[in-house]
């Protein structure tokens, strides 16, 4: 049962808000990928690109006063006019394109928060307490949502027609080209925003949304943070307020099917030779002197399969786990679809049973998308990189439909929204 003190909307709802946007001349240089895709080198490069880069807000550093610094920076930029709130509340159309091809088009607004048991906004991935605590401290201190979560839903024709009409006939409020992709170098992408302020058009959008479900594609930790902040305010007797909503991008997955990429692991405390030796008691191990050949073999291998690599030497492909050991390791109360996921087998069998490790933030590092980056990190730490194939969208949707969640950091849906194009502050809500 949901907490009766919390407002619970009767369906999926998107509310207009006063978008906070940059007023600087070159908006592209103040944006960034989402916070969890930014490594230390990336952060330094972004900070050096412009004194007002959004990284100063979303990743304010390691100092114990960092959240207050982010709040003070945000306040100063609003006072100085570096950032400004739009005068009218709006739901925004957001489009990403590459050349003449529209990659994705969706809606950005304040999504009404609903507990997972209501089955309106569906999480599909477990969260860890560390990132939730970090984002909660930042959100609580800044009183702002600095980057949207990413939701997928199956939209209707009326919304699709309106989005097409807006994007093809109206002038955007933001139009920038960014010379890299999300999470690393890539082709130039164009990002555009349009503001929908007409009450009848906003009502049409919400009429279409009301009876639909949305899947959290990206932003599980931030959505958990939204819910925790809401609980805090209502426990304090604050009543209804901006904490009952969270900044979100909603994309119709039927019109714009998502791109699902893998998230690799690096285990600094596990030397490659030791990882391979222990795996031989439970897996078939295939050695590849040429790493590229190992990666190619992983891409076509039946699941579950993992490529282990590190500093120099060959790569090793793990396939065909011992069925008896695997069956004893996997939780009996989970669905067959969940048990077959490569990330589930990694978390429940390979890490704890084969290697004697616990899947937590201290033991296992995360590298999005790029296997070479994971292998470089493993080599620099004397550890092991575990390279995975991406999950299928159907498997993720199937697990979520059963009310289950895949292990942490199992999925990376894209294309992800660019951070810094639009923000939300509670004071302007």
Structural features:
6-stranded antiparallel beta sheet; 34% helix; alpha+beta; 21 strands; UCP033563; 2 domains
Describe this structure in words.
The chain is built from 14 helices and 21 strands. It has helices at residues 40-49, 55-58, 66-80, 129-142, 157-169, 199-209, 220-235, 272-279, 291-300, 323-329, 336-339, 342-354, 371-381, 393-401, and strands spanning 14-15, 20-22, 83-85, 91-98, 101-112, 121-122, 144-145, 149-153, 174-178, 189-196, 214-218, 245-252, 259-261, 263-267, 284-288, 306-309, 315-319, 365-368, 384-387, 412-414, 424-425. It has two domains: 14-259 and 414-428, no CATH class; 263-389, no CATH class. The two termini are 29 Å apart. The model has no long low-confidence stretch (mean pLDDT 93). Strands 1, 4, 5, 6, 8, 9, 10, 11 and 12 form a nine-stranded mixed β-sheet that branches. A six-stranded antiparallel β-sheet has the order 15-17-16-19-14-18, sandwiched between helices. With 429 residues, the chain is an alpha+beta fold. β4 and β5 (101-112) form a beta hairpin. It is globular. α3 packs parallel to α4 (129-142) and α4 crosses α7 (220-235). InterPro entries: UCP033563.
């Amino acid at each position: 049962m949901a907490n009766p003190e919390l407002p619970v909307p009767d369906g999926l709802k998107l509310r207009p808000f006063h978008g906070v946007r940059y007023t600087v001349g070159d908006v592209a240089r103040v944006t960034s990928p989402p916070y969890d895709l930014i490594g230390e080198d990336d952060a330094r490069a972004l900070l050096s690109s412009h004194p007002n880069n959004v990284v100063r807000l979303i990743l304010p550093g390691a100092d114990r006063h960092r959240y207050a610094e982010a709040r003070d920076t945000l306040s100063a930029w609003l006072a100085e006019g570096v950032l400004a709130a739009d005068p009218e509340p709006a739901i925004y159309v957001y489009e990403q394109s590459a050349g003449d091809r529209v990659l994705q088009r969706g809606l950005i607004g304040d999504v009404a928060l609903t507990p997972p048991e209501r089955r309106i906004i569906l999480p599909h991935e477990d969260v860890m307490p560390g990132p939730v605590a970090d984002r909660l401290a930042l959100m609580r201190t800044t009183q702002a949502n600095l980057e949207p979560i990413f939701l997928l839903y199956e939209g209707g024709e009326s919304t699709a027609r309106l989005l097409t009409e807006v994007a093809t006939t109206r002038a955007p409020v933001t139009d920038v080209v960014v010379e890299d992709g999300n999470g690393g170098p890539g082709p130039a992408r164009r990002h555009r925003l349009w503001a929908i302020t007409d009450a009848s058009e906003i009502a049409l959008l919400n009429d279409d949304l009301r009876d639909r479900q949305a899947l959290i594609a990206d932003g599980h930790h931030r959505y958990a943070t939204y819910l925790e902040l809401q609980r805090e305010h209502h426990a304090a007797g604050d009543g209804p307020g901006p904490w009952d909503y969270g900044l979100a991008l909603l994309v119709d997955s039927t019109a714009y099917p998502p791109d699902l990429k893998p998230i690799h692991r690096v285990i600094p405390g596990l030397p490659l030779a030791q990882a391979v030796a222990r795996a031989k008691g439970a897996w078939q191990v295939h050695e590849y002197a040429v790493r590229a050949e190992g990666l190619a073999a992983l891409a076509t291998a039946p699941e579950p399969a993992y490529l282990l690599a590190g500093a120099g030497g060959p790569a090793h492909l793990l396939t065909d786990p011992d069925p008896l050991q695997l069956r004893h390791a996997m939780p009996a109360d989970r669905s067959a679809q969940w048990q077959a996921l490569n990330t589930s087998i990694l978390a429940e069998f390979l890490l704890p049973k084969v290697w004697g490790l616990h899947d937590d933030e201290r033991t296992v590092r995360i590298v999005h998308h790029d296997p070479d980056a994971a292998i470089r990190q493993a080599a620099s730490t004397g550890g092991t990189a575990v390279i995975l194939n991406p999950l299928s969208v159907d498997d993720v949707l199937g697990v979520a439909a059963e009310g289950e969640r895949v292990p942490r950091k199992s999925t990376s849906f894209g294309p992800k929204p660019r951070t810094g194009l639009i923000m939300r502050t509670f004071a302007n809500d």
